[in-house]
Amino acid sequence: MSTSATPAPHPTPESVAEFRENLDAVRARIDAAAQRAGRDASEIRLLPVSKTVPSERLRLAIEAGMTGLGENKVQEVSRKAQELSDLDLHWAVIGPLQTNKARDVARYAHEFQALDRIKVAEALERRLEAEDRTLDVYVQVNTSAEEAKSGLNPDELPEFLATLPQFSRLRVRGLMTLAVHSEDVEQVRGCFQLLRQLRDDARESTPELIGPGELSMGMSGDFELAIAEGTNVVRVGQAIFGARPVLPKQK
Questions:
Q1: Which pLDDT score is estimated for 4?
Q2: Are the CB atoms for 140 and 130 separated by under 8 Å?
Q3: Closest Cα partner for 155 from 207, 206, 198, 213?
Q4: Where are the domains of the chain?
Q5: Is the full-model pTM beyond 0.85?
Q6: Which residues contact 115 (CB under 8 A, 6 or more apart)?
Q7: Burial, 97: exposed, middle or buried (Cβ in 10 Å; 0-12, 13-18, 19+)?
Q8: At how many degrees (to 10) do helices 55-63 and 16-36 cross?
Q9: How far is CA 36 from the centre of its chain?
Q10: Does the pLDDT at position 250 exceed 80?
Q11: Would you list the DSSP string of the chain?
C-alpha cells in the first residue's frame, strides 16, 4: 500500500472523460478498501481537493460528476465560488483559517474542516450571524505531534469540544487530522487510530458534543488505510486532478 510519502504518478486530466476515468478509479479504490474492511462504501464520502486547479478545468471535473470541492486557502474558495456561481456546489475549506478571513468562509463555504482555535470559532460565529447561515465544522487534531502541523493537541480536545455549544451557528460534525508524512505505514496508521480513539472517547463521555462523530482522514496516498481505520471522509486531490505544480511561497 502506498502512503503519502510515496504516491503513484497521477496524470493530469484535461477532458470530461479523463476526469470521469480518474473519479471512477478513486471510487473503485474506495469500494475495494471498504470491502476489505467489512464496511459499507456508502458510509465514506469522497471530497475532491481542487487546490491550485483553475476554474475552467473545474468545470470539466464538475461535468464528470463532482458536486463538492475542498480548498486549502480561503481566497481560492472565494474566487472560485464566484467564478462558478452558476453551478450548485458544496465548498469545503480544509486548511487553517486566519480570523480576518472568516467572512469569506461564512459567505461561501458549507463546511470547515480545520477548527482548532476559539478565536476562529468566535470570528466565524459573528460572520455567520451576519450572513444568516450555519456552517458544518470538523475539529482538527494534531495526531502526529509535528510542530509544523495545525490542530489541537489530543489532550486539549475535550475542553475545546466543551466550548463549542455556545456557537449556535457552528454544527460540529466530527474530527479531522493529517497523518504523519512517512513511508512507515504503522506510523500513518497510528495517527488514524488515535483520531478514532478520541472520537470514541468523546462519544462515550459527552456524545452531545461530537455531533455525528464523523472522521475526516486520508488523502491520495493513504486513504485506503484511513478507510480501514474508520474514516467517513477522504480528501483526495492529486489522484483526481493530477500532480500539482510546485508554486513559489507567498510572502
A1: 41
A2: no
A3: 198
A4: 16-241
A5: yes
A6: 121, 137, 138, 139, 140, 170
A7: buried
A8: 60
A9: 23
A10: no
A11: ---TTSPPP-PPP-SHHHHHHHHHHHHHHHHHHHHHTT--GGG-EEEEB-TT--HHHHHHHHHTT--EEEES-HHHHHHHHHHTTTS--EEEE-S---GGGHHHHHHH-SEEEEE--HHHHHHHHHHHHHHT--EEEEEEB--S--TTS-SB-GGGHHHHHHHGGG-TTEEEEEEE------S-HHHHHHHHHHHHHHHHHHHHH-GGGSTT-EEE---TTTHHHHHHTT-SEEEE-HHHH-PPP-PPPP-
CB 48 within 8 Å of CB 240: yes
- Does domain 16-241 sit in CATH 3.20.20.10? yes
With beta carbons less than 8 A apart as the criterion, state whether 118 and 153 touch.
Answer: no
Cα distance between residue 235 and residue 217, in whole Å:
7
Q: Are strands 233-236 and 45-48 parallel, antiparallel or unpaired?
A: parallel
Region 180-189: mean pLDDT is 89
Q: Are 47 and 234 in contact (CB under 8 A)?
A: yes
